[in-house]
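WARN retry 2 of 3 for item q-0093 after timeout on previous attempt; input resubmitted unchanged.
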Amino acid sequence: MTIPDELQGDEDVFVSPATGRPLTKRGEATRRRLLEGAETVFAEQGYHEASIVKITERAGIGLGTFYLYYDSKQSIFEALVVDLNRRVRHSMSEAMAGADSRLEAERAGFAGFFRFTADHPALYRVVREAEFVSPETLRLHYSRIVEGYEAGLRTAQQGGEVDRALDPEVTAWALMGIGELIGMRFLLWERDGAGKPPEVLEPKVFDDMMRFIDNALAPRTAGEKDT
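OK item q-0093 returned
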Protein backbone atom coordinates (compact mmCIF):
# COMPACT_ATOMS: atom_id res chain seq x y z
CA MET A 1 0.00 0.00 0.00
CA THR A 2 1.01 3.64 -0.28
CA ILE A 3 1.18 5.45 3.03
CA PRO A 4 -0.67 8.79 2.85
CA ASP A 5 1.09 12.01 3.74
CA GLU A 6 -0.40 11.70 7.20
CA LEU A 7 2.31 13.49 9.11
CA GLN A 8 2.72 16.40 6.73
CA GLY A 9 0.54 19.39 7.59
CA ASP A 10 0.14 22.44 5.43
CA GLU A 11 2.54 25.23 6.31
CA ASP A 12 0.77 28.25 7.69
CA VAL A 13 1.03 31.40 5.58
CA PHE A 14 3.26 33.82 7.46
CA VAL A 15 2.04 37.41 7.69
CA SER A 16 4.45 40.16 8.70
CA PRO A 17 3.41 41.77 12.02
CA ALA A 18 4.72 45.09 10.66
CA THR A 19 2.92 45.16 7.31
CA GLY A 20 0.06 42.71 7.84
CA ARG A 21 0.84 41.13 4.46
CA PRO A 22 2.29 37.75 3.39
CA LEU A 23 6.02 37.71 2.70
CA THR A 24 7.70 37.90 -0.67
CA LYS A 25 10.21 35.18 -1.63
CA ARG A 26 13.01 37.45 -0.45
CA GLY A 27 11.18 38.10 2.81
CA GLU A 28 10.66 34.38 3.33
CA ALA A 29 14.38 33.80 2.80
CA THR A 30 15.14 36.38 5.49
CA ARG A 31 12.66 34.76 7.86
CA ARG A 32 14.33 31.40 7.24
CA ARG A 33 17.70 32.88 8.22
CA LEU A 34 16.19 34.25 11.41
CA LEU A 35 14.72 30.84 12.29
CA GLU A 36 18.05 29.14 11.61
CA GLY A 37 19.79 31.67 13.82
CA ALA A 38 17.18 31.15 16.53
CA GLU A 39 17.56 27.38 16.32
CA THR A 40 21.29 27.64 16.98
CA VAL A 41 21.07 30.27 19.72
CA PHE A 42 18.22 28.65 21.65
CA ALA A 43 19.93 25.24 21.42
CA GLU A 44 23.30 26.53 22.61
CA GLN A 45 22.20 29.03 25.25
CA GLY A 46 18.65 28.18 26.22
CA TYR A 47 15.65 30.48 26.12
CA HIS A 48 16.52 32.75 29.02
CA GLU A 49 20.13 33.38 27.98
CA ALA A 50 19.18 33.89 24.34
CA SER A 51 18.39 37.38 23.07
CA ILE A 52 17.10 39.01 19.92
CA VAL A 53 20.52 40.61 19.43
CA LYS A 54 22.25 37.23 19.56
CA ILE A 55 19.74 35.75 17.12
CA THR A 56 20.12 38.56 14.59
CA GLU A 57 23.91 38.47 14.89
CA ARG A 58 23.90 34.71 14.22
CA ALA A 59 21.53 35.22 11.28
CA GLY A 60 23.57 38.10 9.88
CA ILE A 61 20.52 40.35 9.84
CA GLY A 62 20.07 43.85 11.24
CA LEU A 63 18.30 44.21 14.57
CA GLY A 64 15.65 46.51 13.13
CA THR A 65 14.78 43.95 10.44
CA PHE A 66 13.86 41.43 13.12
CA TYR A 67 10.71 43.37 14.01
CA LEU A 68 9.40 43.12 10.48
CA TYR A 69 8.98 39.42 11.19
CA TYR A 70 8.56 38.91 14.94
CA ASP A 71 7.58 41.21 17.77
CA SER A 72 9.43 39.48 20.62
CA LYS A 73 11.83 36.73 21.62
CA GLN A 74 8.89 34.56 22.61
CA SER A 75 7.20 34.96 19.24
CA ILE A 76 10.25 33.69 17.33
CA PHE A 77 10.67 30.88 19.86
CA GLU A 78 7.09 29.76 19.25
CA ALA A 79 7.59 30.09 15.50
CA LEU A 80 10.69 27.92 15.78
CA VAL A 81 8.78 25.16 17.60
CA VAL A 82 6.15 25.18 14.85
CA ASP A 83 8.84 25.20 12.16
CA LEU A 84 10.76 22.29 13.69
CA ASN A 85 7.50 20.40 14.04
CA ARG A 86 6.65 20.94 10.37
CA ARG A 87 10.09 19.83 9.23
CA VAL A 88 10.27 16.71 11.39
CA ARG A 89 6.82 15.65 10.18
CA HIS A 90 7.95 16.25 6.62
CA SER A 91 11.06 14.10 7.18
CA MET A 92 8.94 11.26 8.55
CA SER A 93 6.24 11.54 5.91
CA GLU A 94 8.74 11.66 3.06
CA ALA A 95 10.45 8.54 4.41
CA MET A 96 7.12 6.69 4.70
CA ALA A 97 6.00 7.42 1.15
CA GLY A 98 5.65 4.24 -0.89
CA ALA A 99 5.82 1.82 2.04
CA ASP A 100 4.02 -1.46 1.30
CA SER A 101 2.71 -2.10 4.81
CA ARG A 102 2.08 -0.29 8.06
CA LEU A 103 4.98 -2.01 9.80
CA GLU A 104 7.27 -1.04 6.93
CA ALA A 105 5.93 2.50 7.19
CA GLU A 106 6.71 2.54 10.92
CA ARG A 107 10.28 1.51 10.25
CA ALA A 108 10.71 4.13 7.52
CA GLY A 109 9.03 6.85 9.58
CA PHE A 110 11.26 6.27 12.58
CA ALA A 111 14.31 6.27 10.32
CA GLY A 112 13.20 9.67 8.99
CA PHE A 113 12.68 10.94 12.53
CA PHE A 114 16.14 9.87 13.66
CA ARG A 115 17.79 11.37 10.59
CA PHE A 116 16.15 14.69 11.35
CA THR A 117 16.97 14.68 15.05
CA ALA A 118 20.60 13.74 14.35
CA ASP A 119 20.83 16.80 12.09
CA HIS A 120 18.76 19.04 14.38
CA PRO A 121 19.47 18.16 18.04
CA ALA A 122 18.02 21.57 18.91
CA LEU A 123 14.61 19.93 18.60
CA TYR A 124 15.06 18.32 22.02
CA ARG A 125 16.11 21.40 23.95
CA VAL A 126 13.62 23.70 22.26
CA VAL A 127 10.71 21.34 22.87
CA ARG A 128 11.69 20.79 26.51
CA GLU A 129 11.88 24.53 27.14
CA ALA A 130 8.52 25.05 25.46
CA GLU A 131 6.94 23.35 28.47
CA PHE A 132 7.77 26.46 30.49
CA VAL A 133 7.99 29.18 27.83
CA SER A 134 4.86 28.34 25.85
CA PRO A 135 2.86 25.30 27.03
CA GLU A 136 0.26 25.85 24.30
CA THR A 137 2.93 25.57 21.60
CA LEU A 138 4.33 22.43 23.23
CA ARG A 139 0.88 20.85 23.11
CA LEU A 140 0.49 21.89 19.49
CA HIS A 141 3.82 20.25 18.63
CA TYR A 142 2.82 16.86 20.00
CA SER A 143 -0.82 17.04 18.92
CA ARG A 144 0.04 17.68 15.29
CA ILE A 145 2.17 14.55 15.23
CA VAL A 146 -0.30 12.36 17.12
CA GLU A 147 -3.36 13.35 15.08
CA GLY A 148 -1.88 12.11 11.83
CA TYR A 149 -0.29 9.12 13.50
CA GLU A 150 -3.58 8.07 15.04
CA ALA A 151 -5.39 8.31 11.71
CA GLY A 152 -2.77 6.11 10.05
CA LEU A 153 -3.08 3.48 12.76
CA ARG A 154 -6.87 3.40 12.45
CA THR A 155 -6.58 2.84 8.71
CA ALA A 156 -4.06 0.03 9.29
CA GLN A 157 -6.37 -1.60 11.83
CA GLN A 158 -9.21 -1.58 9.32
CA GLY A 159 -6.92 -3.29 6.84
CA GLY A 160 -5.91 -5.95 9.36
CA GLU A 161 -2.28 -4.82 9.59
CA VAL A 162 -2.36 -3.67 13.21
CA ASP A 163 -3.94 -5.35 16.23
CA ARG A 164 -7.51 -4.07 16.43
CA ALA A 165 -7.52 -4.37 20.23
CA LEU A 166 -5.10 -1.46 20.51
CA ASP A 167 -6.42 2.03 21.18
CA PRO A 168 -5.01 4.17 18.32
CA GLU A 169 -4.60 7.31 20.43
CA VAL A 170 -2.77 5.54 23.26
CA THR A 171 -0.66 3.64 20.72
CA ALA A 172 0.27 6.83 18.86
CA TRP A 173 1.43 8.52 22.07
CA ALA A 174 3.36 5.41 23.12
CA LEU A 175 5.15 5.17 19.77
CA MET A 176 6.02 8.84 19.83
CA GLY A 177 7.44 8.45 23.33
CA ILE A 178 9.57 5.51 22.25
CA GLY A 179 11.07 7.44 19.36
CA GLU A 180 11.74 10.55 21.40
CA LEU A 181 13.48 8.75 24.29
CA ILE A 182 15.48 6.38 22.08
CA GLY A 183 16.71 9.40 20.14
CA MET A 184 17.56 11.24 23.35
CA ARG A 185 19.53 8.33 24.80
CA PHE A 186 21.34 7.08 21.69
CA LEU A 187 21.73 10.28 19.64
CA LEU A 188 21.63 13.28 21.94
CA TRP A 189 23.51 11.76 24.88
CA GLU A 190 25.85 9.42 23.04
CA ARG A 191 29.39 10.70 22.39
CA ASP A 192 32.52 9.27 20.79
CA GLY A 193 36.08 9.69 22.11
CA ALA A 194 36.22 13.20 20.67
CA GLY A 195 32.95 14.18 22.33
CA LYS A 196 30.97 14.19 19.07
CA PRO A 197 27.43 12.78 18.85
CA PRO A 198 26.72 10.04 16.28
CA GLU A 199 25.44 11.09 12.86
CA VAL A 200 23.04 8.12 12.70
CA LEU A 201 21.35 5.82 15.18
CA GLU A 202 23.29 2.61 15.72
CA PRO A 203 21.66 -0.11 13.53
CA LYS A 204 21.40 -2.62 16.38
CA VAL A 205 19.58 -0.09 18.56
CA PHE A 206 17.21 0.69 15.70
CA ASP A 207 16.58 -3.00 14.95
CA ASP A 208 15.93 -3.82 18.62
CA MET A 209 13.49 -0.93 18.89
CA MET A 210 11.64 -1.96 15.73
CA ARG A 211 11.44 -5.61 16.86
CA PHE A 212 9.69 -4.39 19.99
CA ILE A 213 7.32 -2.17 17.97
CA ASP A 214 6.58 -4.87 15.38
CA ASN A 215 5.64 -7.30 18.15
CA ALA A 216 3.46 -4.69 19.84
CA LEU A 217 1.52 -3.75 16.71
CA ALA A 218 1.18 -7.13 14.98
CA PRO A 219 -2.38 -8.53 14.77
CA ARG A 220 -3.14 -11.25 17.32
CA THR A 221 -5.04 -14.46 16.70
CA ALA A 222 -7.87 -15.47 19.02
CA GLY A 223 -5.59 -17.97 20.76
CA GLU A 224 -2.85 -15.39 21.27
CA LYS A 225 -5.30 -12.93 22.80
CA ASP A 226 -6.39 -15.49 25.39
CA THR A 227 -2.84 -16.25 26.57
